[in-house]
Every structure is written in structure tokens, then in C-alpha cells.
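User: Could you walk me through two proteins back to back? I'd like the raw sequence and the C-alpha cells for each, with a short line separating them so I can tell where one ends and the next begins.

Assistant: Of course. Protein one, sequence then structure:
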Amino acid sequence: MGHHHHHTAAELPSVFRKLMIATIATSLFVVIELVAGLLANSLSLIGDAFHNFTDTLALVLALVAVRFERKPPTATKSYGYHRAGVLVAFINAGTLAAVTMFIFWEAAQRLRKPQAVDNRTMLVVAVIALLLNGALTLSLRREGRDDLNIRSAVLHLFGDAVSSAGIIIAALLIGTTGKAFWDPAVSILIGVMILRSSFDILRETVNLLLEGTPSGVDPEEVTRSLATMDGILGVHHLHIWALAPSRSALSCHVIVGDVPLKNTSELLARVNALLEHEYGIEHTTIQFEFAVCPDDDPYCVPVGAGHE
């Protein structure tokens, strides 16, 4: 049996510092926006303040997850804490969806009975929010490409930037037309965009938590690639899952026929190199079988038949 695991270098200080700055800035703005929303009687500002609050929660949980993901494996957590980030991302996306449902309900009430709002306060606060969330989104964009946990936090921030742009439009429309219904109307549009964005995160996290195959990896293609390598007569019991979004893992049985055990070390190195370079799979558990092909293995070549 062969076992291969590669640890990538983590840029912990840089990521942690950026998340800490984003958390402090967002926390302060939540209070400012909530007070402004209440004074202006603006549902879109109040809703955005709640959205900003979930951003703060997302960032705090992201900070915790960044620490936990780097903790070394233990006897009871042999894979370490890589899934901490996945779990946090799931909670964040679910929380955001729940808050959006509340905004929908409140917006429906206000559409039936519009309430006067202070569009000037809406405009000023929304412009500040747009600049703040836009800057924070850009600062964490690179880290979010490879880490689902940070990506979910960035999604929160980007969603708030979009929300702020919507509030600016609503404030301008209220000032131009004098119609207060633009406030709840824009709130609904903001909620739709937020739900659509969070759905992708929920779908990916559920797949990873259920040990599903990571997106972009085809198990049948991996099996065929392994089965055509020199020295391999067949591959079966292949499983691919993810310890974290950027850390795929694989286990399989490889049939090599009647060969000495010492001859499998070079083959194991070639198998791991193929998996890492072609499919980005760095954590593998390979079990060699010195037997004939099972009848139910379509990729197994009988001994003596050779490879096509």
C-alpha cells in the first residue's frame, strides 16, 4: 500500500491580517448603517446592515477556520481540520439565505403600505458602504480563489457591494420620483441576487460534506488514465473526495499481477505523479493487488493480454 500527502505552504500571516482588518471595518460599519437605517426609516439600509452583520459573522468564522485548517492532524483527527472551512462556508451561506427571507417578508409588507424614507441619508451611507465593501472584496479576491471558506466571506462582501449600488439607485429614484416604494422594491432585487450567489456556495459545501467528488474531476477519466499505465492491469474501488476545496484525495486498488512487491515503488511514484500533475490530487492511498482481474472490472486487462 502506498500513501502520499503533500502540504502546501500557507500564507497565514497575510490572510489573517486581511481578514482581521475586514472584520473590524465591517463591524464598525454595521452599527453606523443600522442607526442610519432606523433614522432614515429605510428598509434597504436596515436590510443591508443585517447583511453586513452576517458579513462580520462570516469574517469572524473565516478567521477561526483559517487557524483551524492549519492545525496539524491528531490521533482522533487524522486528516487535520481542513473541513472546518467547508463547514463555516456552509453556515455562512445558510445564514445569509435566512436573513434574505426576512428582508423579502418585510419588503412585501412595505410594498403594500409604503413608508416615507430619508433618501439623502440612504445615498450617503450607501456610497460609503459601496467603497468599503468594494475595497475589502478586492483585497481578499486572490485568497478566495483557492479557499472556499474565504470565498464565502468574499461573496458576502461582494453581495453587500452590489446591495449598496442598489440602494444608491433607490435613493436617487426616490429623490426623483418621490415614490417610497423604490426602497422595498430594490431590497427584493438585492435579496434575489444574494440568494443566487449563495446557492453555489451551498451546493459545493454540501457536496464536500457528503464526501462527493470535487467539481472538475471525472472519476471514470482518472480510472482510465491509471488503467493505461505500463505495469497496471486494472483499477477498481476508486474513490475521490476532498479534504477541502483545494485538497482532493483518492484511494483505489491497483492490480499489478504476479510481480515482486519491491518492484511497485517505482510504479507508485509514477501513479502519484500522474494524479498530482493531471488532476491536482495530492493525497493518495494506493493498494496494490497481486491477483487476477475481477470479472466486474471493465478497466482491468487480463494477465498476458497487454495494453492497447
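----
Protein two, same layout:
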Amino acid sequence: MIHKDIKIFLQNICKNSLLINTILEVNSFFDIIFIQEPSWSSIWSILSSSNCEGDIFVSMVNHPNWLTFVRPNTTESDYPRVIAYINIRLFSFCFSFQKDIIDHRDILLTFFFNNGELFWLMNIYSDASYSALKYLEDTEVNFCNLLIMTEDFNIRDSLWDSSFSHYSSISDNLIILADSFDLSLPVPTNQIPTRYTDNINDSNSTIDLIFIQCDSSALNNHFIHPE
């Protein structure tokens, strides 16, 4: 099965276009790259019937070795904050994404076929108001074989952050949501923060999480790269 050997790279790039170019160049041995808070920039002007100067075409970074999956945007306030890059060597698995099941700028639901079965992957960015999590709680979704739900949940909790002594009530909602998808929170092979602060008065934190299919022991092996 492909998901026994799949390699996924996850990172919030904080709208740094140079960083995402580097990630795509140097991580070709990964199968999938999940990005949060990508950079959107003006590429060129296109002819417009309503604007004599043309409309500005805005896009994200693309790369010839990666298939790009992103929710279409309509306005600047609706620009997606999650992107998936699929290595072209996995082209035969017919990766695609589903907007009709989940339609939110901070959630990207992708799928692929393997041996006649459909498998799902979910990339999430959760902002300060937890809008993506609230959307999932309020939206009735019906699909199985969700292999992984990740990444930037912006929730500090002593459950997964040993340097943090407090409990967050939103964590219960996240755990219940993961359980509804038959997902569990594994322990990384190295216990280090996932977010480092530039402010000496703030502590480093663990806010990037990976929930995996409960019976997928083969997926239960993830490593946190120091920033």
C-alpha cells in the first residue's frame, strides 16, 4: 500500500515565497508537501472587459516537479491559506482535491486511488479564531479512509506541549473532531517545539500536530525538524 511508504513534509511558511521555493527544490525525496500560510503575489495583468488596465493575475509558487492543489479563490480576503504539492512521480495515483465536500480557505481535502480504494488527506490552517475547526464541527461530512489530518492548529496545550502547563478547552473539540474521523494523535520520534519565537519573553511552542488513522501503525513515525 502506498501509505506505508508515503513521505509528507509539513510547514507553515508565514507567506515567505523564497522559503517555499527552497522547500520545493530541496525536498524532492518527499511525496507530498503540505504548506500553510503561502505567499500570494501578482504574476501578470490579463485582459478585462471592465478594466482598461487589465485585471491582475494572482498566483502561488509552482514547480515543474510538483503538482499543485489549491482551492480557487475569488477575492483577496478569500485567498486559500493551505496548499498541497504532490510529487509528479505519484501522478499515476490520480491525486485530486474535493471542494464540494469541504469548501473553506483553510482546509484542503485531497484524495488518491490505490488498489481500487480511495484515501483522503487533510491539510488545515487554524487561525486565532479557530474558524477551520468550527467549520468542520458545523459541517456534516461523510467520507472514510482519512489517513491524516494536519498541521497548524495554533493551540497550545499541556497534552502535547510539555513546556506548557495549561489546558485549553478548544483541545477537547479538536480531539473529538479527530476521533470522529477515526484519527489519533501519535507521539513524534523527537520531542521538540514546532514553533520558535523571536521574542525572548515568549517561550517556544508546539502547535503543529499530526492526527493519523488509528489502525495505521505504518504512519506512526514522524519527525520534527528543528527550525
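The mean pLDDT is 83.

Let me know if you want the two compared in more detail.
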